[in-house]
Amino acid sequence: MDERELQAERLRLKAVTAVIRKQLDEWEQTERKRKSDMNELAKHLWEEVTIDPQASAESAVSLSQQTQVWAELHRSYGHASAMRQALEAALPSPYFARIDFREEGQSAAEPVYIGKRSIVDEASGRYLTLDWRAPLAGVYYDYGLGEARYETPEGEVRGYVDLKRQYRIRNGELEFAIDTGLQIGDTILQEMLSRNAGERMRSIVTTIQREQNAVIRDDHSPVLIVQGAAGSGKTSIALQRVAYLLYKYRKRIQAEHIVLFSPNLLFADYVSGVLPELGESNMRQMTFHDYAAGRIGKQLHVEDRYALMEKLLAETDETERARREACIRFKTSADYMRIILRYIGHLEREGAIFRDVIYRTKPIVTAETLRDWFYGRYAAEPAHVRLDKMKEKIVDAVKVYAVRQTKRVFRQLQNDPRYLGTDKELMDWAKRRVGERIDEILEEVGAFGFVDIPAMYRQLLEDEALFRRMAEAAGAAVPPDWTSMKTYALEWLSRSTVPYEDATALLYMKESLEGLQTFNPVRHVLVDEVQDYDVFQLYVLRKLFPRARFTLLGDLNQSILAEAGLTGYGPVEDVFGREHCRTFRLTRSYRSTMEISAFTTSLLPEGEPVEPVTRSGRRPALVIASDAGRMTQLAARDAAALLADGLQSVAVICRTQADAYRAHAALRAEGAAARLLTRDDARLGSGLLVLPSYLAKGLEFDAVLVWDASAGTYVRESERRLFYTVCTRALHTLRLYAVGEPSRFVAEADPELYDVES
Ligand SMILES: Nc1ncnc2c1ncn2[C@@H]1O[C@H](COP(=O)(O)OP(=O)(O)OP(=O)(O)O)[C@@H](O)[C@H]1O
């Protein structure tokens, strides 16, 4: 670009900045004015109310009018404040790109400047910047120079891109501008990628790639499946997609109508900065485990995926592990899901188990009566309707009982010489005493405490003949070691604990018998790390969000617990209906340098394809230490050097949490200021972090130090994907530490792809 052109760009930036400043001033003034009007009016209202508390009808009318004025002022103040904030956010860098789009049939192209939000010059009505989510802005992401088109509500617009330019503007200064052809300029992308990993994820709107844009803007498909390599931007896409949906459907969809299922608290916090950065509110975030555990209830403790991972990784008894893995494989299968669905149907006809509704030791309504109601009086209705009607009847019975019991207690108090008081006092006392317990009972009844779902589940496990009948009716095969599997689950349940693999069955029995607690207002559900969900969990999600569209993002290469996750997307299509699903495959990976990518790709010879962007760094290093003490010293030394070098986050990733505790203690003893992360942590933070492998999923760090990548630690073939996932967390530096021989995963990798230090 020549100097004249550059100068013109600088002048334009100045002009745009001046308009923004002017608008900012005006909105600031409006905001201040509204605020002072509100204060004034509030004072006035207050005086009116306090001076004349017995307000006449007339002054009541005036009061109500003034309240309306106050509400209007408040709304206007909120608007002014939002505008002020948006302009303030735009001021340092109002736009990042420009396209000159010439509509078909027109001779001149119109320059369009694209930014995080639209800013309109009120005097001329022209767009100074156009929101990146606007239809025309999509051209910037989708096309190079030449023919282009985009969709508008009025139809397709065709034309030509005559110019495509990118800018870096910081603090209102144009640092550089470059014209790009086909791809979005590699220079700026490279620069984005070479930055340090933050404590929070950042938006990628300035460099969204064409294949990513297709996912972000697809609003035709009811179910989007995105298979994307590690670092291909799945999480980024999910968040930019939320921002896009909030923009496009702003009249109908607000942030509370969108739910993101994330793997854990740490991840939820990590992604929580992107939408505010884009000027939008955060969507709701949920984890499947929290939802299930909350619904299953406080009486039963539900094992989460992390506890399961820790248990499996730490298990040294191979037979015990194989037994557990077999349980998980079967219980998360489509066969088991079908058996449970059959059983739920069966319970509508026979076998339901109820609990007595008890006042202290006396039953108000017995389980037997409840059974009679369920299969007799209300048998014609679906189960959840029967239970609702039963609930009403129980509440009536409890209330009648409460009145009788209160009288009984009152008489006892009257006859007991230890209690002195008037009849009214004794009656109040009786009411209070009975009332407390009655309230508890009513609360339990309200939450269907009279339906014993765990007992019904246990019954299915205990009664093998019943189980086989259900399996046969469902067309499902019963594994030969079923007896051992059921014994295992029954042992857990007898300790009021639900194994991970049984939780979905229990959850769904509850949802379906008591009536699904559906999230009807939710319009979009995004599931990140979908490879970690099994078919039954996905089925439950579909049922819970009946009016939502789904975006499911995952990576089969990172299926770290293959027994309880997806190994292909067939089951997803089965659950959601193949005709509703559209699959995208993203193979380009943006996170790691080419050297790290080449190494990690070679760890999974049979894996899904990955193609790194061209960004160079040092080759990964395998550091061989003579013993554990030496390994700690080397890791501590390297971590300190990397941090001193300007890297912001250095993660020591261990195989298990137990290893992480030990590594953390050892590193601290070496003088390293390391911070330990566990699954209860809600903030990632920066500096030197120590965490277990499965917790690092979805996150990224400037440098990853793989703790104890030794032959004796990462042994099992089934942990190959886990090892891969750990290594793919690194942006710039990957170092693996082994005591003696390295793990077979490293030993089998191409030795050209890493350096060895000993
Ligand atoms: N178009 C892009 N421009 C700039 N940076 C990008 C782009 N796409 C992805 N990135 C960056 O690449 C990194 C990986 O992105 P992200 O975490 O979204 O990938 P992912 O597919 O969810 O990864 P994984 O499955 O390995 O957890 C992030 O730092 C993200 O900012």
UniProtKB/TrEMBL annotation:
The keyword Hydrolase applies. Residues 207-593 form the UvrD-like helicase ATP-binding domain. InterPro entries: DNA_helicase_UvrD/REP, HelD_bacillota, P-loop_NTPase, UvrD-like_ATP-bd, UvrD-like_helicase_C. Pfam families: UvrD-helicase (PF00580), UvrD_C_2 (PF13538). Keywords: ATP-binding, Helicase, Hydrolase, Nucleotide-binding. ATP binds at residues 228-235. PROSITE patterns: UVRD_HELICASE_ATP_BIND. SUPFAM superfamilies: P-loop containing nucleoside triphosphate hydrolases. The keyword Transmembrane does not apply. NCBIfam families: HelD_BACSU. This is RNA polymerase recycling motor HelD. It comes from Paenibacillus thermoaerophilus. The gene is helD.
